[in-house]
Design goal:
DNA-binding; 18% strand; homodimer; three-stranded antiparallel sheet; alpha+beta; 5 helices
DNA sequence: GGACTGGTTTGATATCTGTCAAGATAGGTC
DNA sequence: GACCTATCTTGACAGATATCAAACCAGTCC
């Protein structure tokens, strides 16, 4: 998961998705001067890491954050 | 910071350091079937990321976690 | 069904990164 | 000062990764 968030593009993607509870790919793509193939690749990486999930609704595909995965991140480094 | 923790070796290093409040390089090295040069390189990466800090005390060098940096990690992805 | 739009997958390529070996530095001991 | 140990730095190289272009798949609308 840390590795997935290690790329600045993916970190911003995750942050964007976290901020809106649900986000269409068509809203993510224009934010990143990158080809749609690359966007899709990064989203797949985040999904493979278990950080996000997605669903197709008609023409569009929506992504959202997996809350459990995010919660697990902090625990790894807490001193207690 | 996420990038620094993206490598499994560095994540384990950070976890080891977090667990003991302060750790000597000579305690870290034997835990990872890697050359001392590589260990040093990873520690430098973590230090450059602001996750840990170090101090030389006589012959040995001690590393510890930067608590503020760790606290900042979770905030980035929390929905609120 | 054909064309158009939104997303994904694949293939190729340039860059980045982890690793080691070897040389360099710092402190301690004699 | 010479030597030894612990750590860091440098140079080189193999494997991973980000990116694009192009081909491909899924829905929608005419």
């Amino acid at each position: 998961m840390f590795k997935a968030l290690g790329d600045p593009v993916r970190l911003q993607m995750a942050s964007m998705i976290a901020a809106k509870a649900e986000l269409c790919v068509c809203e993510i793509t224009p934010a990143f001067d990158l080809s749609s193939g690359t966007i899709s690749h990064h989203l797949k990486t985040l999904r493979t890491a278990g950080l996000i999930d997605c669903e197709r609704r008609g023409t569009y595909v929506y992504y959202w954050l997996q809350p459990d995965a995010v919660a697990a991140l902090g625990a790894l480094l807490s001193p207690g």
